[in-house]
Amino acid sequence: MRKSLALILSAGLLLSLAACSGSPAAPDCAGAAPSGESSDAITATGDLGADPSASFPFPLVTDTPQRSVLIDGDGQQVGLGGTVVTSYTVYDGDTGAAVGAPQSTALVVSDGLPAGLKGALLCTSTGERVAAVIPKDEAAEIVTGATGSIVMVFDISAAFPQAADGADQPAQAGFPSVVHDADGRPGITINSGDNPTEAKSTLIKKGTGDPVAEGDSLVVQATAVSYDAPRDVANSTWEDGTPQLWTMTADAAPTQSTWQPAGIAEHLIGQPIGSEVLVVLPGADGGAATAYVVDLLGVLPSATQ
Questions:
Q1: Which residues, in sequence order, are CB contacts of 18 under 8 Å at separation 6+?
Q2: Contact 166, 172 (CB under 8 A)
Q3: Neighbours of 223 (CB within 10 A)
Q4: How confident is the model at residue 152 (pLDDT cuts 50, 70, 90)?
Q5: Signal peptide: which range, if any (predicted)?
Q6: Which CATH number applies to 37-160?
Q7: Are 27 and 82 in contact (CB under 8 A)?
Q8: Is 16 helix (H, G, I), strand (E, B) or coil?
Q9: 133 with 60: CB under 8 angstroms?
Q10: What pLDDT digit, counting tens, does each position of 32-46 carry?
Q11: How confident is the model at residue 153 (pLDDT cuts 50, 70, 90)?
């Protein structure tokens, strides 16, 4: 493999930044890659988040994905549908040489990732360093032109759950009703004929994390339903397959990668991470209002923004 070979970790891509949060429940780790003789042969030095300078006997070959934990994490494990923020380095299993420079990104741990990559990241946690060996038949899905096994070393700087993990709060009168499926995805029911003309919000779940502050870059899951089409979902990160990054300022404008509505930040600032908030925003010039259910998953540290 040449050092110029392009990495194609694009499936489930979220952000090229770091973040922090917890997990709503113990995940199913049945799909996580097991440790094995090949992955156990990998060592890596250096501080977490720095170039790990991995070494291993080569050629390093495996028939199935393997991973070994080099540094234990200190957070809850991320399950399928959750997001990890990681720096990583890729190595040629045949020569031991690094393939390209270290990279940093955030990835949704989903079935959209190559199986070996999903197996390497599933059930990792914040503060963990993981070494993985991915066999030849899967390596080319990750590194263009790979001709043998690849070795990947991941430093997990943060792990987000798929959904808010806060405690359920009593339903409040005057708001749409919200129910959830087993994964935490919300469904919104709006009473026919309603069309609020003033903004309002209420907690559906109350988290235990730090409160969201003005200026924070907030990672969210969100669902929007318009009062003039209550049977249809107008926007949903759940359907899109990735959370979004919303800016907690009053003048935040949507970017190409987000549909954050104007005026929603003031209803999220002050709420603890892990909460789920129901926000109703009136339509412009007397138009239809929109209900938003927003899961507050984590905040990007200021040093990464």
A1: 85, 104, 106, 157, 158, 300, 301, 304
A2: no
A3: 21
A4: very high
A5: 1-25
A6: 3.10.50.40
A7: yes
A8: coil
A9: yes
A10: 999 999 999 999 988
A11: very high
The string over 194-214, giving b where at least 16 C-beta atoms fall within 10 Å of a residue's C-beta and e elsewhere, is eebeeeebbbbbbbebeebee
Task: Give the tokens for residue 21.
Answer: 């949060």
Q: How many residues belong to the chain?
A: 305
Domain 167-304, classified CATH 3.30.1520.10, yes or no: no
Predicted confidence band of residue 192 (pLDDT cuts 50, 70, 90): confident
Tokens of 73: 């994490």
Please report the sign of the dihedral spanned by the C-alpha atoms of residue 248, residue 108, residue 179, residue 171: negative
Q: CA separation (Å) from 33 to 64, 91, 135, 215?
A: 8, 18, 12, 38
CB under 8 Å to 240, separation ≥6 — which residues? none
CATH 3.10.50.40 residue ranges for the chain: 37-160, 167-304
Q: Mean pLDDT over all residues of the chain?
A: 87
The stretch 63-73 carries a mean pLDDT of 96
**Residue with tokens 């730090």, as numbered in its chain:** 210
State yes or no: cis peptide before 254, omega within 30 of 0.
Answer: no
Rounded to 5°, angle at Cα 92 from 91 and 95: 120
Strand partners, 211: 272
Whether 188 and 223 have beta carbons less than 8 Å apart is answered as: yes
